[in-house]
């Protein structure tokens, strides 16, 4: 790296880390890729010819996407390539194309102008959504529009930006095609002003193992091609014009990080088993089918939580039984018959209320109609999902997880609906698995307190700490004014977790955890010591959690859990656990601990 320019002050920015790693190098700022489209009036005799141009452009875009899909499959595999199948479906959207054709005829304007107008209206409706998943599809739409408009205008140059050498790519946002095309050159990392963890480009960056950060605000205004830059995908930090001391520090960090990655890579093929022989089921939480393959490659024992909400949040209409069946089948078959796939029925409402459920404005939506409470008033929607899930049961080890259970009556209602749906499918001659385990999420204090009663009604329990902490401490985790009170290590939370595990075991069912606490390396020894049978974690945390499990003994974890449960405050618990972690796992401080606890 060239010597630091003393005339340029070091600038540090924090964004959202979406792919781990450290990159040091020169910045390359992508062209803005703005769609330059003028409005031209058409004569009557030109209208049909313009519509023909539109359809020809869409066809060329389809062919381009098919080629890109093949390239992605060769580089990353079928699951990541499926992103471009989704783009093809969006490209073929009959409603969108039909609206463009209608406007060309009625407004007598050029096809590229009308296509951009219609797509822009779609993008604006997505941008207004409260759902991050919904908003993240704006980039996909923009990618499609850019592709189609380029072909309408007769521009066949697919690559407007060429990297001069190894670079950290900077941009307003990245489309999946940007990500895959650029990776085939010399990309050290990605950093963008916009984007989210759930965007397709972010998912691909994780699969490519390229350090990436999104949500960096006005980054492009502060940086130019050729500027020195450091990108820390672990902490979500980008440093522009780093001074020599900073570069030296990060070179050491990069060397240590590479050693850390190599260490974790070695444990992929080994089981999550303590040194004294205690096996822990280590599974992955996923939201998209594209996340399954990388998780399995990192040694996940199946999928411990497959969230189905995005199927409802990323479209204007309810997903059909056929659409859901196709997606669930893809997930289950990709895992195979050796490991389980736990599909959670839709957990909507609260911050994810949808018009499909006719939820009225609520003063406190997190205590209102959400999760299982929506089912009885929307039985046709619930039944459609159950039919799709049950039909998937013959393709692998399927389990059903029910969210937001607060009482025995709710679990009984859901089981009745599952049995009713099973009978319907059997009468129709649909082949189903003989046994489909049903479990309940323990994420409401009433469920944790009565976990023994709920366990008598189901086959397993899965603790959802995100909501359990929120409801136990009466803290809205999204409220910045009380966010400091949201503490996973509050003694009340720890006691509820311990009691839920104990009560489940007393009733003969296994107990897992799929909340964010399961992905926190600081919590691993405590949770193992409390007797959890399964940890379902974020894919990015799989290897570090496994490495910790393989270094510990179950007996020492039991003693540690007993000691932790004797503390009176969250601060005392965290202080003790940090001291243990620094002593036992100093070489593993590249996880979220790097950020969360300021180690």
Describe the structure.
The two termini are 28 Å apart. The chain has 599 residues and is an alpha/beta fold. Helix content is 47%, strand content 13%. It has 23 helices and 16 strands. The strands form two sheets. Strands 1-8-7-3-4-5-6-2 form an eight-stranded mixed sheet. Strands 9-10-11-12-13-14-15-16 form an eight-stranded parallel β-barrel, surrounded by four helices. The protein folds into three domains: 11-32 and 160-263, 3-Layer(bba) Sandwich (Glucose Oxidase, domain 1), CATH 3.50.30.10; 44-152, PtsI, HPr-binding domain (Enzyme I, Chain A, domain 2); 272-438 and 514-596, TIM Barrel. It has helices at residues 47-76, 78-91, 94-107, 111-127, 132-152, 176-183, 200-208, 219-222, 244-265, 292-297, 310-313, 321-335, 379-391, 408-427, 445-449, 451-455, 465-473, 491-506, 524-530, 542-551, 554-564, 570-584, 593-596, and strands at 11-14, 16-19, 22-29, 167-171, 187-192, 212-214, 228-232, 237-240, 281-286, 303-307, 340-344, 397-402, 438-442, 460-463, 510-513, 534-537.
Radius of gyration, whole Å: 25 Å
Q: SS-based structural class?
A: alpha/beta
Q: Mean of the pLDDT scores?
A: 84
Shape: globular
Distance between the termini: 28 Å
The proportion of strand residues reads: 5-15%
The first-level CATH class name of the largest domain: Alpha Beta
| Fold-level CATH name of the largest domain | TIM Barrel
Count of domains: 3
Question: Could you give me the name of the CATH homologous superfamily of the largest domain?
Answer: Phosphoenolpyruvate-binding domains
């Amino acid at each position: 790296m060239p010597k630091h320019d003393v005339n340029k002050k070091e600038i540090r920015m924090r964004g959202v880390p979406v792919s781990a790693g450290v990159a040091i190098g020169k910045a390359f700022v992508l062209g803005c890729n703005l769609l330059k489209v003028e409005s031209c009036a058409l004569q009557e005799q030109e209208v049909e010819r313009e519509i023909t141009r539109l359809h020809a452009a869409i066809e060329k875009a389809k062919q381009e996407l098919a080629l890109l899909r093949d390239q992605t499959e060769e580089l990353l595999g079928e699951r990541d390539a499926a992103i471009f199948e989704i783009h093809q479906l969006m490209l073929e959207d009959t409603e969108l194309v039909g609206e463009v054709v209608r406007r060309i005829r009625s407004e007598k304007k050029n096809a590229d102008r009308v296509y951009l107008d219609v797509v822009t209206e779609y993008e604006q409706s997505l941008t207004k959504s409260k759902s991050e998943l919904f908003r993240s599809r704006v980039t996909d739409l923009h990618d499609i529009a850019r592709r189609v408009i380029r072909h309408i205008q007769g521009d066949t140059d697919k690559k407007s930006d060429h990297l001069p050498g190894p670079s950290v790519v900077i941009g307003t946002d990245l489309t999946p095609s940007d990500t895959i095309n650029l990776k085939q050159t010399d990309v050290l990392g990605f950093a963008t002003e916009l984007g989210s963890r759930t965007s397709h480009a972010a998912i691909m960056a994780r699969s490519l193992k390229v350090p990436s950060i999104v949500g960096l605000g006005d980054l492009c205004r502060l940086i130019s091609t050729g500027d020195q830059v450091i990108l820390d995908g672990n902490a979500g930090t980008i440093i522009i014009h780093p001074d020599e001391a900073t570069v030296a520090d990060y070179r050491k960090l990069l060397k240590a990080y590479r050693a850390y990655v190599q260490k974790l890579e070695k444990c992929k093929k080994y089981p999550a088993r303590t040194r004294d022989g205690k096996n822990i089921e280590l599974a992955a939480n996923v939201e998209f089918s594209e996340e399954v393959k990388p998780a399995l490659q990192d040694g996940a024992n199946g999928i411990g939580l497959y969230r189905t909400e995005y199927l409802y949040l990323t479209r204007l209409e309810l997903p059909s039984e056929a659409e859901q069946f196709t997606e669930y089948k893809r997930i289950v078959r990709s895992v195979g018959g050796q490991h389980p796939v736990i599909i959670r029925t839709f957990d909507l409402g609260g911050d994810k209320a949808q018009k499909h459920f006719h939820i009225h404005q609520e003063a406190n939506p997190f205590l209102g109609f959400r999760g299982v409470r929506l089912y009885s008033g929307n039985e046709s929607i619930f039944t459609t999902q159950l039919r799709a899930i049950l039909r998937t049961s013959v393709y692998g080890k399927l389990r059903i997880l029910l969210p937001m259970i607060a009482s025995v009556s709710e679990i009984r209602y859901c089981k009745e609906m599952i049995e009713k749906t099973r009978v319907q499918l059997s009468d129709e001659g649909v082949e189903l698995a003989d046994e489909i385990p049903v479990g309940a999420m323990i994420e409401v204090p009433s469920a944790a307190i009565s976990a023994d009663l709920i366990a008598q009604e189901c086959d397993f329990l899965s603790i959802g700490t995100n909501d359990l902490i929120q409801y136990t401490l009466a803290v809205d985790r999204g409220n910045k004014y009380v966010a400091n009170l949201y503490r996973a290590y509050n003694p009340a939370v720890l006691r509820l977790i311990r009691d839920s595990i104990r009560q489940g075991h007393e009733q003969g069912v296994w107990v897992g955890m799929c909340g964010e606490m399961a992905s926190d390396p600081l919590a691993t020894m405590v949770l193992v010591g409390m007797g959890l049978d399964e940890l379902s974690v974020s894919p990015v945390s799989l290897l570090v959690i496994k490495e910790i499990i393989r270094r510990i003994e179950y007996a020492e974890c039991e003693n540690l859990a007993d000691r932790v449960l004797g503390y009176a405050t969250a601060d005392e618990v965290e202080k003790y656990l940090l001291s243990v972690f620094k002593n036992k796992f100093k070489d593993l401080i590249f996880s979220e601990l790097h950020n969360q606890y300021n180690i």
